[in-house]
Hints:
This protein is an all-alpha fold and about 290 residues long. Helix content is about 80%, strand content about 0%. It has one domain (about 5-290).
Amino acid sequence: xxxxxxxxxxxxxxxxxxxxxxxxxxxxxxxxxxxxxxxxxxxxxxxxxxxxxxxxxxxxxxxxxxxxxxxxxxxxxxxxxxxxxxxxxxxxxxxxxxxxxxxxxxxxxxxxxxxxxxxxxxxxxxxxxxxxxxxxxxxxxxxxxxxxxxxxxxxxxxxxxxxxxxxxxxxxxxxxxxxxxxxxxxxxxxxxxxxxxxxxxxxxxxxxxxxxxxxxxxxxxxxxxxxxxxxxxxxxxxxxxxxxxxxxxxxxxxxxxxxxxxxxxxxxxxxxxxxxxxxxxxxxxxxxxxxxx
Length: 293
């Protein structure tokens, strides 16, 4: 098997089983988990970059005000996305959270139309329309606006759009994001500690270790993904990316027995059909481009 495919599958498997990790420490408040996730991600990534002697990019980032502003906004969006996902998982909304990562590819294309003036092809418009019907079905027939999934797609989609404007790779970019969030996260945890309500150091050793490992489980799949992106075609990555939300959906339904009535399932079916159309159309177009070039 292609080494890039192995890296990609590894990344998406880790992302797919994320809910299980957060569930184990669900007794810790989500904002504490988020703070530890930020701090230990930065520590883990810093060790890797120091080992590789790869800090030259930092001077360039701090020398451009526009780049710093972009990273400030993207860091806030990433923190909101992480916080919302941890809260959703530990509040028994894993299935609804998975919706956000199902529709994220379509939402990213929509953002390209909105901000980058990209022009969708006919079948992409059809996929948008069907996904839109699914969202409307959730809202008016199922009776609940899928705000968790859409908020996750929105924050991660805008984050991805902003990251397109810088020249850093995935590891460097995440290091910069966690660096900007590090001080606020540390201050918050120290405040919790001095208030006598902090969790770290006051719970079983295994849970303390899991809070530290939050940085590893956050950063490792991203490193795998970056390695995969260098080795395999984007169309292959596009197909494999659905491993993560499919696993999250299955974890929520089969492992944690979250409710999935017929109306909610129908809403998901609309989204899945839209994704099938989008994926097949994308593969066909990329093959046409290869033939013509």
